[in-house]
Amino acid sequence: MSGESPELMLAKASALTPAEQSVLDQALTGAPAREIADRLSVSEATVRSHLSSIYVKLGVSGRVALLAHFRGAEPASLPGETQAPPRPLGASVTSWSWGVVAVLEGAYAVYLLSSALAYGASQTTWLLIIGFGLLSAFSTRLAFAIRERPSRKRLAVSLGAAVGHLAFAIRGIFIGPEQPFLILGALAIGIGWVSFRAMRESRD
Q1: pTM for the structure as a whole
Q2: Is the C-alpha dihedral spanning 23, 29, 32, 36 positive or negative?
Q3: Which of 183, 94, 196 is nearest to 139 (CA)?
Q4: Do 202 and 150 meet the contact criterion of CB atoms below 8 Å apart?
Q5: How far apart are CA 7 and CA 1, in angstroms?
Q6: What is the Cα–Cα distance from 185 to 167, expressed in whole angstroms?
Q7: What SS3 state is found at 77?
Q8: DSSP, residue by residue, 141-191
Q9: Which of 108, 122, 144, 175 is the one with CA 20 to 30 A from 17?
Q10: Following CA atoms 45, 163, 132, 107 in sequence, which dihedral angle do they give, to the nearest 10 degrees?
Q11: Which of 199, 139, 197 has its CA nearest to residue 168?
Q12: What tens-digit pLDDT sequence spans the chain (204 residues)?
């Protein structure tokens, strides 16, 4: 049983932000983080961040203790939340890989742009600057999307994106310096393989 008085519990709850209070209200229904995210139209990562903050402010160790804190019951196992399956390793690797690719693509775009501004550039170089910039933005968005919710659909998008990057790299070998495109092609092949394996791990 919780040894805290109702007044102390309310005082602690008053320290929560409006967003945290909304998450708390949903969490007290026993809904898992993904369902809460859908109900509040936010990302699952945002929900988990709010939950972590709530646990700290209320002085509880997790979801089970949170429910016991407000319901005055001994902690018990909750279906779907405490026994949630861990994030597939392949999905995590895929997410981080796209993050690395995004950084490399962005850095190369900046390098080409700085050279173009300093010494001038051909139309092909400007096209490469635009191309790498767009790829960097897409890779960044894909990395965050997979990290937030590593669903089978998003992993399929990852596989398709890897094929697209590989095609871009092959085409780029004939119009620009070979080394950056060879590196990009190798990364695309690796990410495509990891994405395919992660799709097999995913259950949704």
Answers
A1: 0.57
A2: negative
A3: 94
A4: yes
A5: 16
A6: 8
A7: coil
A8: HHHHHHHH---HHHHHHHHHHHHHHHHHHHHHHTTS-HHHHHHHHHHHHHH
A9: 144
A10: 60
A11: 139
A12: 445 555 566 666 677 888 888 888 888 888 888 888 888 888 888 988 988 888 888 777 887 777 776 665 444 444 444 444 455 677 888 999 999 999 999 999 999 999 999 988 888 889 899 999 999 999 999 999 888 877 888 889 999 999 999 999 998 888 878 888 999 999 999 999 999 988 877 654
The string of DSSP codes covering 14-73 is: TTS-HHHHHHHHHHTTT--HHHHHHHHTS-HHHHHHHHHHHHHHHT-SSHHHHHHHHH--
For the chain, what's the residue count?
A: 204
Q: Whole-angstrom Cα distance, residue 44 to residue 95?
A: 15
Q: Are 33 and 48 in contact (CB under 8 A)?
A: yes
Q: Which two tokens stand for residue 36?
A: 């809460």
Write out the two tokens for 87: 């994030």
